[in-house]
């Protein structure tokens, strides 16, 4: 008598793994955006927008807030979307591009605007792929 073991690979992760990965990516992205802002400031780029300075920690806080919104979006898509990963990536890429608009319009110098946009892109490059990997294709 022979038996054959059948395994079914899972393409989805558990909700807990999605949240855990999202939280880790959020912390990493927050640290990275603060580092980018600090290096930019040390290199002489102003962190002033409309004559009000943005503290380096402000970059981390706002990155954390919006990254957590992205994790919440991923959690909802994992439950309700037919193709959660594809929908998440498309949505977050569009939102990332839209997040650059206020930077372009900001009352700030060109270097400051570029630094602001760079921090958005750094956060997106860290969070989007990490979270997307935890969603079903």
Describe the protein:
With 137 residues, the chain is mostly helical. The protein has one domain (15-132). 72% of the residues lie in helices and 3% in strands. It is built from four helices and two strands. It has a two-stranded antiparallel sheet. Strand 1 and strand 2 (52-53) form a beta hairpin. The chain is elongated, with a radius of gyration of 19 Å. Pfam families: DUF6069 (PF19545). InterPro entries: DUF6069.
Overall helicity:
over 70%
Largest sheet: 2 strands, antiparallel
Number of helices: 4
What structural class results from the helix and strand content? mainly alpha
Overall geometry: elongated
Q: How far apart lie the N and C ends?
A: 38 Å
Number of domains: 1
What is the overall pLDDT average? 93
Widest sheet: strand order? 1-2
Q: What is the string of SSEs from the N terminus onward?
A: HEEHHH
Q: List unreliable stretches of 5+ residues.
A: 8-13
Strand content: under 5%
Write down how many β-strands occur, each being a DSSP E stretch of 2 or more residues: 2
Instruction: From the alpha carbons, calculate the radius of gyration and give it in angstroms.
Output: 19 Å
Organism: Micromonospora jinlongensis
Protein name: Cell envelope biogenesis protein OmpA
Pfam family, one: DUF6069
InterPro entries: DUF6069
């Amino acid at each position: 008598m022979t038996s054959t073991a059948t395994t079914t690979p899972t393409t989805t992760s558990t909700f807990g793994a999605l949240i855990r990965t999202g939280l880790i990516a959020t912390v990493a992205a927050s640290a990275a955006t603060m580092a980018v802002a600090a290096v930019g400031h040390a290199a002489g780029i102003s962190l002033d927008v409309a004559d009000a300075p943005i503290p380096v920690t402000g970059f981390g806080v706002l990155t954390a807030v919006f990254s957590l919104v992205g994790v919440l979006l991923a959690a909802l898509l994992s439950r309700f979307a037919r193709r959660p990963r594809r929908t998440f990536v498309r949505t977050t890429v569009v939102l990332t591009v839209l997040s650059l608009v206020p930077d372009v319009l900001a009352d700030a110098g060109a270097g400051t605007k570029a630094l602001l946009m760079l921090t958005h892109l750094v956060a997106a490059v860290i969070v989007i792929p990490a979270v997307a990997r935890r969603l079903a294709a």
